[in-house]
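Worked Example 4.2. Consider the chain below.
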Amino acid sequence: TDQVTKIIFLIESEKKYRQMFEDNTAIKLLIDPINGELVDANSAAGNFYGYDLSQLQKMKISDISILSSEEIYIRMLDIQPIFQGKKSCGLSLFSLHFHSKGTIHKM
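Applying the procedure from the previous section yields the following structure tokens:
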């Protein structure tokens, strides 16, 4: 039935998400482009930044970036057209971020 097909699709989608995000050894942050909140982070990010995941998920990108809130806002505005399909990705999104112990790392 159609309902079973939707459930199977949802299960497969969740499995792909876990493989690409949660189980990935690369540092992954899911950032709300409107307010800069860290919506989600994987364990690699937690290990890299020195925070547990519940702490990271209560933070904003401004809490770990050395950029000012204004600079972060400008970068977020710059990348929004990419996600709307209006611009190709040619921007550098690298930044310097703080570790929980205060050291700075290039991202």
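Helices lie at 2-22, 43-49, 53-56, 61-64, 69-83. The longest helix spans residues 2-22. Compare this with Example 4.1 before moving on.
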